[in-house]
Amino acid sequence: MLQRRRLEDRLHAALARSRAVALVGPRQSGKTTLARQLLAPGEARYFDLENPLDEARLAQPMTVLPPLQDQGGLIVIDEVQRAPALFPVLRVLIDRSPRNGQFLLLGSASPALLSRAGESLLGRLEVVEVGGFDLGEVGAAAQDRLWMRGGYPLAFLAGDDAAADAWRSNAIRQLVETDLPRYGIQVPAPAMLRFWRMLAHLHGQIWNAADPARSLGVSEPTVRRYLDHLTQTFMVRQLQPWFENLGKRQVKSPKVYFRDSGLLHSLLGVRSAEDLLLHPRSGASWEGFALEQVLRLAEPDEAYFWATHAGAELDLLLLRGGRRVGVEFKRADAPRPSASMHIAMQDLKLDALYVVYPGQHRYALADRMEAVPLSSLLG
């Protein structure tokens, strides 16, 4: 298993400054592996709610948890979304002691979804998000493999592309048939799977509910709800638009991206690297993959895209420390500056604009505008 030093450091820092930490992300993304470095399953303070014995131990949480809390040390509750009734109890226990590093909660959905049937812990815990492997963890030499297979550890480390695709296909079925109902999301599995496959062909595009709703024979609010479910379970990212008073008509709907390129490829029917290079959505797939890597590695304060109805656009606007940085993604051998880039530089008052591409050389395009290989982001 690959070492995830940056993620481990983030988790240790969060536990040092917060009473409770939620480690959230999709299933099989490595949350339990990280937690086991702090506390091994089988210890009295580790509860895995997929284990019937641990689930039974927590049947009376106010009897079991306070004595463990009084002993000091960390209490880990894995797959906490399986017991939403725990949230009111955890709120009481977190407020009971000022000591940091008391609880680590592992969940396979967003905090809002985890607590929908319980009580919100907003303001009482720090959230650390875990995704699959990123480029910083696998290294530049494995970039193409990461793009093809995605970052889920068992898919990335599979013996071959066929084994990786089999794992991903099973994960897709499990989400729609088992996981979503556990979160209280009552969507027929065939309908959600059809929507998800349809969404794969909309990857990287501005969201418009009309066509998916018409194809599925449901209302636009229903399709929007399907999209939100996939967002809350970390399957897709809704990249929100940036707009300000520029005297121009600007796009105000989000763009939709798959967060894991491997899942995207399975839903598109891409089974091998050769299939991927020949697929008509290959360029969109690479751009979404590169965008996700930039967001993971840059860790901006805020991230948006920008577009006008006249055709000017910027793939990614990063806000960090008072700076505005624009990013364009081009799957090209030698990208060149475009009129749209110059418009974005001027209208958005960018401090810099980087064109990320899959090549090897870094070079200037114009004033404060540079072409940057994706692999160069590692150093």
Detailed description of the structure:
By secondary structure, the protein is α/β, with parallel strands linked by helices. It folds into 2 domains: 5-129, P-loop containing nucleotide triphosphate hydrolases (Rossmann fold); 137-378, Arc Repressor Mutant, subunit A (Orthogonal Bundle), CATH 1.10.10.10. 42% of the residues lie in helices and 18% in strands. The chain has 17 helices and 14 strands. The strands form 3 sheets. Strands 9-10-11-12-14-13 form a 6-stranded mixed beta sheet. The chain has a 5-stranded parallel beta sheet with strand order 2-3-4-1-5, with helices on both faces. β10 (313-320) and β11 (323-329) form a beta hairpin. The chain is globular.
Please provide a brief summary of the model:
Helices cover 42% and strands 18% of the residues.
